[in-house]
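Quick one:
INPUT:
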């Protein structure tokens, strides 16, 4: 009976250790708690940006990994770049901000056809990234403006950064790629 109790205690201990290790973070991955925290931070940053009437949230992508926030996309002015960074830094839980926002060209605004072309390019790039088995596409954001594709988010390796850029460049209509992917 005593041996059975010891054996059961050992099994319970092994089970608990395994469960805790399964939820633990590594250098390149997040624990369940960290993922939830990062999702909360991303949501709070997006909400704060949305509340500012000078910023267009549809043009700003927010990605968070272990408290580090990356802003990417296209905005109308350098002041908008600065303002978005300030807003992101003010959110509780943000440890740092990598501001990769780009100022749109100041020539005439996009025609409906150009907008649709950019939307098509974005969709094709996203599909190609999702279709590539070597890329974890859920943390790669894609934004397009006048054929310029911006890649943002977090990946596991420098090879993934290079591969994502190559995939984006291979899409018809892409004039250039600004690769702002960050290695975790």
């Amino acid at each position: 009976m005593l041996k059975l109790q010891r054996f059961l205690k050992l099994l319970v201990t092994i089970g608990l250790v395994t469960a805790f290790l399964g939820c633990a973070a590594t250098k390149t991955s997040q624990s369940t708690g960290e993922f939830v925290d990062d999702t909360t931070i991303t949501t709070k940053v997006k909400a704060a940006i949305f509340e500012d009437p000078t910023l267009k949230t549809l043009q700003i992508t927010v990605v968070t990994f272990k408290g580090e926030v990356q802003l990417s996309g296209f905005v109308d002015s350098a002041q908008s770049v600065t303002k978005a960074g300030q807003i992101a830094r003010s959110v509780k839980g943000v440890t740092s901000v990598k501001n990769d926002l780009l100022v749109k060209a100041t020539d005439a605004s996009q025609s409906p056809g150009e907008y649709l072309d950019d939307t098509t390019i974005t969709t094709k790039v996203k599909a190609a990234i999702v279709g590539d088995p070597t890329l974890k596409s859920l943390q790669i954001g894609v934004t397009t403006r006048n054929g310029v594709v911006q890649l943002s988010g977090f990946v596991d390796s420098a090879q993934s950064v290079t591969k994502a850029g190559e995939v984006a460049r291979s899409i018809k209509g892409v004039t250039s790629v600004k690769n702002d992917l960050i290695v975790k």
